Amino acid sequence: MRAWIIWGAIVILLVIAFNILTDHSADSSQIKFSEFRQAAAAGDIKSVEFKGLEVSGVFNEDYAEAEHGGSATFKTVGPVGEDLQDVLTANGAIYSFEKADKDAIWQQILITLIPLLLIGAVVIFLMRQMQGGSGKAMSFGKSRARLLNESNNKVTFNDIAGIEEAKEELQEIVEFLKSPKKFTRLGGRIPKGVLLMGKPGTGKTLLARGVAGEAGVPFYSIAGSDFVEMFVGVGASRVRDLFEQGKKNAPCIIFIDEIDAVGRQRGSGMGGGHDEREQTLNQLLVEMDGFESNEGVILIAATNRPDVLDPALLRPGRFDRRVVVPPPDVRGRKLILEIHSRRTPLAKDVDLAGIARGTPGFSGADLENLVNEAALLAARRGQDRVTLADLEDAKDKVMMGAERKSAVISEAEKRVTAYHEAGHALVAILQDATDPVHKVTIIPRGRALGVTQQLPAEDRHSMTRKYVLQRLAVMMGGRAAELIVFDEITTGAGNDIQVATDMTRKMVCEWGMSDTIGPLSYADGDNNPFLGGGGGPTTRPYSEAIAQDIDAEVKRIVMEQHDVAVNLLRDNLDTLELMAQGLLEFEALDAPELKLLMEDGHLEGIRKRREEIERIRTADEDERTPKSGFSTKIKEKKSPGGLGTLAPSANS
Ligand SMILES: Nc1ncnc2c1ncn2[C@@H]1O[C@H](COP(=O)(O)OP(=O)(O)OP(=O)(O)O)[C@@H](O)[C@H]1O
Ligand SMILES: [Zn+2]
């Protein structure tokens, strides 16, 4: 920004200088038209000297008439040559001219220089724009670290939940920043660099700001990608600048987000096209070696790809303290939900623990998003409180994309979907080791036409073979139902088949759950559990014979569970029929409704329950908005179920 102002000022000064010079030269060498006219009228002008002069305008032959009441036109001509001189002399009508004196040399220089400078500025600006660095044109070499104003926006450890271990590890840094002497007195060495490792949205940035907030020190943050510039040397000088700034403001925290952008292993760039990045990384290493943490500058970096970092970064004296920031567990999720709903008025029916149970795999950022979506939904529905139904709907939206209310789905398609989802749900209900079914819907959402959600009582960290097999049968349940009822299958089972095949392959190749293959690992590629599978090159560290065995075994297991599903559904065809009817009528069934359906054998109980809920809700609404002009009715009637929570496995 500042650089822009300076550039602008230079250009403006040049333009002013140019104008002054040209004005000056013009003034000093121009004959006034009135003088000329007088002379011409007196008939004194017969010819004019043009040597070393430039004509800027002449009167044409009408001039003489004009002087006698006719009209004259003005015509511009270029530098005067011999021919023109003759014409003018013949017409006797010269008007104004400029002297080409020594001032003109400066003019020439300025005239060529200004466009050059302007073009240069534009080119540089465009180049930087192309790098995606909008708004930072020409701040070469300046670090772009931002000093966050912590007085307005202070984060403390109280604002962070679900990552207690990480907080504890960082507490030491906080203590040090608060009273450095206490530590250095005994010669203790404080880590210079802390590397926070975790998936996106798990709160790494938040933690770093929390450390600064707790210790009451300034917080400088910069993204790794800000270092990576097109011009060689810029990144390195930014690093230098950043550290200088840090040391000046010590004690403080310097936070480098996405350090992998600059810290990727050296020599990994193809064709050596990353010289600039490597130079920047080298500078970072040099700077890290060149200061003592005792000076009070603590470097915190974050990455979700610790595996690609250059090992030199992780050596002692650099980022030697590594803190894993895991996704929150069920307790953590509840706490995070509480933090983010502090400012959101919640209805009495809201049970955050239930929502937490239904959101395995959600990151802190996802949960924040969920609460936000729910608040928006509640506002759109005209409520003054966020209800459980809002949170449920928000969760579905965050998890699976928005409902596609407008999607045109034919009656026939809807019928197939109803049986398909009922097939999943019924196979789940009829087995003893699967997770309870939480909700079945045939409301299209994201890319799925319908969804069956199962919900474990608590987070699942391991699965038994029985559980995995039954889950396979549930996945096969959708297709099995289509087959039994319509004697036909649709593409709707495609995703089920893919997930089932992947899981079975894991059973055989990774979890040692196949007796034929035995407890051996035949995992393909690089499976980094921390990153949820790196997806690297597929290597096959086993023989062709084993590969065939694996394929046969995977097929056998899947087919077996498919048959289990078919048999279960054949034996309970009436219930399948009833559940599909229920889905067609209500579009969504939650756990209590499924229970009613299984026990009653008809849909009457569900109808009553729906009416009752509606009655309570309207009464509740009336009570909350007494006699207000616009009555707030919730338009969407979606299973505002009592148990409230959703879904680890969504079978579409
Ligand atoms: N443990 C948590 N407790 C409370 N809020 C959280 C937590 N984790 C994430 N959040 C919320 O999610 C937002 C995003 O988190 P943050 O930017 O810290 O994640 P990150 O790990 O740095 O993600 P990224 O890798 O994408 O930069 C935070 O501003 C915060 O509101
Ligand atoms: Zn399905």
Which regions contain 5 or more consecutive residues with pLDDT less than 50?
24-34, 45-101, 131-141, 526-538, 625-652
Total tally of structural domains: 4
CATH secondary-structure class of the largest domain = Mainly Alpha
User: What's the mean pLDDT score?
Assistant: 74
Q: How does the major sheet shape up?
A: 6 strands, mixed
Question: β content, as a range?
Answer: 5-15%
Q: What shape does the CA trace take?
A: elongated
Count of DSSP-assigned helices: 23
Tell me which CATH architecture of the largest domain applies here. Answer: Up-down Bundle
EC number: 3.4.24.-
Organism: Bradymonas sediminis
InterPro entries: AAA+_ATPase (IPR003593), AAA_lid_3 (IPR041569), ATPase_AAA_core (IPR003959), ATPase_AAA_CS (IPR003960), FtsH (IPR005936), P-loop_NTPase (IPR027417), Pept_M41_FtsH_extracell (IPR011546), Peptidase_M41 (IPR000642)
Membrane topology: Multi-pass membrane protein
Please provide a written account of the structure:
- The chain contains 23 helices and 13 strands.
- The protein is an alpha/beta fold.
- It folds into four domains: 2-104, no CATH class; 146-324, Rossmann fold (3-Layer(aba) Sandwich); 330-399, Helicase, Ruva Protein, domain 3 (Orthogonal Bundle), CATH 1.10.8.60; 411-624, Methane Monooxygenase Hydroxylase, Chain G, domain 1, CATH 1.20.58.
- Strands 4-6-7-8-5-9 form a six-stranded mixed beta sheet. It has a four-stranded antiparallel beta sheet with strand order 12-10-11-13.
- Residues 420, 424, 478, 493, 496, 651-652 line the site of zinc ion.
- The site of zinc ion has 7 residues, from helix 17.
